[in-house]
Design goal:
The chain folds into 2 domains: 187 residues, 3-Layer(aba) Sandwich (Rossmann fold), CATH 3.40.50.720; 94 residues, ProC C-terminal domain-like (ProC C-terminal domain-like fold, Orthogonal Bundle). The chain contains 13 helices and 9 strands. The chain has a 9-stranded mixed β-sheet, with helices on both faces. It is 50% helix and 14% strand. Helix 2 links the parallel strand 2 and strand 3. Helix 8 crosses helix 13. With 300 residues, it is of the alpha/beta class. The structure holds NADP nicotinamide-adenine-dinucleotide phosphate (NAP).
Length: 300
């Protein structure tokens, strides 16, 4: 570590190119003021942070991405994998970038925001933390720092995520478009007023867990009808993907798309009638409402 406590690691290839040897952090140089700023720094490289880093590296090029983590080896490992730069302190990572993404657990975000507050002017902060309000974040980082909030879901990790983006009173159009660009390889990103984030989260954040059992159940039905398990699961998952793509790409109402598949007196309408008899719609609506109510309680 150098005298400022700042160090970085950006993978063996880059280290070799820079004339450095070994993978320890001791011999790694610090980020220099005056060096070209990176676009985004991600503080916290856990499940969501690392998924966002991988996507940002794809969207921006790894040379425009910085990371740091409480356990530095995790950030270094991610840097080795992606080619981005790992820093040995949150402050060094934040200092290197225009956009500072806070990807730590909600209860830790205030401490990290306050640790960085004095170097944030001139940068923008993006919180990933569920339930942390923009107004609170604004108070911790300072009134002039543009703050934004994102709510990603787990499919972001493979580029088919759904993310909501809200901005505080200091966020300008440029900040929205920059964050949309940084996250462009995560899947869809849509602007949403902060007051609707809990509802969004109940549909898109919790939604995968509501759909996985449904896919599994479709496959169970297939197995009951004689299909091998692996085939049944693949058919069920690909069919779910296809149905979702039809809704998104045709823009048609799902009721119409369902009607189009149901021929009079046929097998599909017989199956649809069973789903209705077992209350599929009511179960899905109640699942989203239960998650939404819980989200509201967690945020308090
Ligand atoms: N996972 C999701 O599906 C999801 C969806 C939407 C939003 N989010 C939000 O994303 C945030 C992160 O969640 P997660 O699931 O990714 O949690 P996680 O896997 O536990 O990751 C959190 C990371 O933060 C690091 N960390 C903790 N304190 C730190 C500090 N002071 N400085 C730097 N790094 C620090 C941890 O480091 P260590 O390695 O030392 O533990 C860990 O790697 C949460 O606020 C959550 O609400 C998550």
């Amino acid at each position: 570590m150098d005298e400022s406590g700042k160090k970085w690691y950006n993978g063996p290839k880059a280290a070799a190119e820079a004339g450095l040897r070994g993978s320890g952090t001791k011999m790694l140089p610090r980020f220099q003021r005056g060096e070209k700023m990176k676009k985004a720094a991600f503080i916290g490289t856990g499940n969501m942070g690392s998924a966002l880093v991988r996507a940002a590296c794809r969207a921006l090029g790894a040379e425009n991405v910085a990371v740091s983590n409480r356990t530095p080896s995790k950030a270094e490992e991610l840097a080795r994998e992606t080619g981005c730069q790992a820093f040995g302190s949150n402050r060094a990572a934040a200092e290197s970038a225009e956009y500072v993404f806070l990807c730590v657990k909600p209860k830790l975000i205030r401490g990290v925001a306050e640790e960085l507050a004095d170097l944030l002017p001139g940068r923008a902060v993006v919180s990933v933390a569920a339930g942390v309000l923009l107004n609170d974040l604004q108070g911790w980082v300072g009134e002039d720092v543009p703050v934004l909030r994102i709510m990603p879901n787990t499919p972001c990790a493979i580029g088919v995520g759904m993310t909501a983006l809200s901005g505080g009173k200091t966020a300008r159009e440029k900040h929205f478009t920059d964050v949309e660009m940084i996250l462009s390889a995560t899947g869809r990103v849509e602007r949403l007023e902060e007051g609707l984030i809990d509802a969004f989260s109940a549909v898109a954040g919790c939604g995968p867990a509501f759909l996985y059992p449904y896919i599994e159940a479709l496959a169970d039905g297939g197995v009951a009808a004689g299909l091998p398990r692996n085939k049944a699961l693949r058919y069920a998952a690909q069919t779910t993907l296809g149905a979702a793509s039809m809704v998104l790409e045709t823009g048609a109402h799902p009721g119409k798309l369902k009607d189009d598949v149901c021929s009079p007196g046929g097998s599909t309408i017989a199956g649809v009638a069973e789903l209705e008899r077992h209350g599929l719609r009511a179960a899905a609506i109640d699942a989203v409402l239960a998650a939404w109510k819980k989200n509201g309680q967690l945020g308090k």
